[in-house]
Amino acid sequence: RPKAQAQGLGLSPQHQSNKDIGTMYLPFSHRFPFHKLSKIKDRASLLCMKALANRGRLDSVSQQMASHPQYLESFLRTQHYILYMDGPLPLHYRHYIAIMAAARHHCRYLVSLHSAQFLRVGGDPLWLQGLEAAPSRLRHLDHINKVLAHQPWLTARSHIQALLKTGEQCWSLAELVQAVVLLAHCHSLCSFVFGSGSDSDTTSTPRVHHGTPPGYCLCDAANGNTAGPTEKAPRRREDEAMFSADPSRFVTDPEFGYQEFARREEDHFQVFRDYSWEDHGFSLVNRLYSDIGHLLDERFRTVASLPFPHSPDLKRAIWNYIHCIYGIRYDDYDYGEVNRLLERGLKLYIKAVACYPDSSKTPLCPLSWASVKASEKVHVNLLVMEARLQAELLYALRAITQYMIA
Known about the structure:
Elements: H1 3-6, H2 19-23, H3 40-55, H4 60-65, H5 69-84, H6 91-104, H7 108-120, H8 136-139, H9 142-150, H10 157-164, H11 173-196, H12 218-222, H13 233-243, H14 277-288, H15 292-305, H16 312-325, H17 336-341, H18 344-355, H19 374-405
Helix pairs in contact: 3-5, 5-15, 6-7, 6-11, 7-13, 9-11, 10-19, 11-18, 11-19, 14-15, 14-19, 15-19, 16-18, 16-19
């Protein structure tokens, strides 16, 4: 077993970060030579400027992550690639799938954000009336969306087979892999949004201070599209009314949620003894969805290498605890370390953020470290997000592998 997995941070055996490949996925990257910046604050500022230029607003997620600029760079690169770069799914499908994923956790912030982008890339406004208004191909994703969001260990070959069966509404394998990556990305991002408080009191898409509407991007003006807020006012009012829609419109079976995996029989654990990110998941997803494996692996590596003011053992315990509550254990890790290093309050916080990131149902326990800094809380939330992302991907990719070899 590679050393990285023995430490509980599943990483691919690739030693390079593929920055040369990944850089091209970020617009305007040639204008921001990060390697020449000597100050972390300058780098964070430029990353935020990039996010502002690309989206027409500086969202609170980017603001939170800016305390760890090297991670923010990797996150933005991956997210931009998934949502806007080469892939089999049309852009409006991608944003609608993101809406479906965020709605499982009642994340108004992300539902609102992707509703705006869905319309901006040409999506049909009628689809935003609810899941029943969407095409049947998208509705067919609802079950695997539900399972991955709440009980990913239930993901099975039969779920993959049902989506790939022959017929007019079937999915191709490449389309399904991109959809699964997008679902897992948004589910885990809901955890970060919840842990950072970005979803509290959200009623509409955040605006730039000068009044740029949600559907208007600064890069539109840069590209010669001078239609400003006044010309788009009627459409904007219609859009904003839709953005305030209840996320439950996109949810079926709302009672389905996380169940305590630890209360199951011990035999259900260690299900990934013969399936890991570094040995199996990385190569499979990279083969079926070009370059995404490198981008995801860079995220895992980056969060693992971020400076942590506490013991490295604590960081490893956080990662392994999250995988444990999702049913994944490692033979070479002493789980007594989890109870020794993670005090009860921290475990409650991690579990709430990882498993119950729904601000409409779950009161968030405060992070109980006496003198915790804002950047340290963000660091913990990043660990939760990335560990959860990897766990979901492992379950989904294992099911796809089982389908392919059946």
